[in-house]
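A further point concerns the way the authors explain their paired sequence and structure data. Nothing conveys this as quickly as seeing an actual entry. An entry of this sort, consisting of the sequence and the corresponding C-alpha cells, reads as follows:
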Amino acid sequence: MRIEVISPHGFCGGVERAIKMAHELLDRTGGTVYGLHEIVHNETVVNGLTSKGMVFVESVSDVPEGATVLVSAHGTSPATFVQALERGLNVVDATCPFVSAGHARIRDNFKKGMRTVVVGNPAHAEVLGYLGEEGACLPEEVRPGERTGTVVQTTLDAGEHEGVCTATRDRQQAVREFVNSQLPAASNSRLSTLNSPLSKVGVLVVGSVRSSNTGKLADIAERAGAKVWRIAGVEDVAGLDFEGVDVLGVTSGASTPEDVYEAVLGALRNMCDRDMEGE
C-alpha cells in the first residue's frame, strides 16, 4: 500500500493563533487562566493546556471575579463579552478572524435593516455566538419575502455552502482532488463504494470525533468514493485494516496538531514495512 500526504492539512491559521495565544498567556501569567469553551475540539490540545494550568468553563459566570479568561477560536456572543467585563474579568479574545468577520457581517446587515440567517449546527459554539448578535436567526425563522443576509459556520462542507472559510475549503478540496486523481475516469461514478473501483483508494482522517471540520473531511472522502477511516491519534493505528487498499491518503482536521499527524504517518509506514517483510 502506498501512503500519500494530503496537503494542506492540520491546523488552520485561526487555530494556530488561538493555541499560541493560550500558551503565551499561561507562560506570562504563571497562574490559573480560564478558557471559555474548549479552545479547539481536540483532546490533545485541551489536555496540554490543562496540564499547564488552564481551566475550561462553559460560562463566564464560572470564572472568579478579576480572573483572566480566554475566548476560544469559536468566538462567543456580544452579551458574553459584556458579562465578562461586568465581572471585572481580564478578557483575551482568541476568536478566529474568519469567525470575527462573520460577526461583523451580521452587525453590518442589522444596521442596513436586514436579518442574517446563520447556517450551521445550532449547538456549536461558533453558531451560538452568531445567534447572540442582534438580527441573527436560524433558517426556519425567516419570514416569507424577507430580505436577509447569510453567515455560514466556518467548518461546513464548502461544496454545499458558499461562505465557508478559506482554510476549511482548501483542506476539503485537497481531499476531493486526492481521491479523484487516483482514478479520474471513476471519479464521478454514482456506484456505491463497495461496487466502485475507487474502493482501492483509502483516506485516513486524523482528528477528534468531536471536531466538526474533521468529520466533514471524512464525509467528503466517503462521498467521493474512497474507503474512509477516522482516528484520534497514533494509539488507534494498530486496529486499522487496510486490506484491498492500494493507496492511502492521510489528512488531518484543522484542530489536529502536526506532531499527532506525524506520529500517525510514522506508525503507518512502520506497519507497511512489517507487512512487506512478511511477504
